[in-house]
Write a structure and sequence with these properties.
By secondary structure, this protein is mainly alpha-helical. It contains five helices and no strands. Helix content is 69%, strand content 0%.
Length: 108
């Protein structure tokens, strides 16, 4: 139904920052290197020599899809960590229909 609320994206960015701080310099550094490679290389794959955040939404999607097909070993680990953190949010769990007595914020 469209993009998630801005508050959820802010929460995700904050949680990712905390995760990377706890991950240590090597893991955090490799993750940030992956993000940088995606941000700089993906636009080149659609012949747009600009950082990904300067592209239109349509071009960003096209660039990321092409990057994922061409360089899955870079994109998938970055995407996996973002997804894991994103779906830890109680609202995301509810939106996907997940209900658990084990999760304190998403109970029956």
């Amino acid at each position: 139904a469209g993009a998630p609320p801005a508050e959820r994206i802010d929460w995700l960015a904050s949680e990712l920052a905390h995760f990377l701080q706890r991950a240590g310099w090597r893991s955090g550094g490799f993750y940030q290197l992956g993000l940088m490679l995606i941000a700089l290389l993906a636009p080149l794959l659609i012949l747009r020599p600009a950082p990904i955040w300067r592209l239109s939404l349509e071009d960003r999607v096209r660039a990321l899809r092409r990057m994922e097909r061409a360089f899955a070993s870079v994109v998938l680990p970055v995407k996996a960590i973002l997804c894991i953190i994103y779906y830890e949010h109680a609202d995301a769990a509810r939106e996907t229909g997940y209900i658990s007595a084990c999760h304190p914020k998403v109970g029956p």
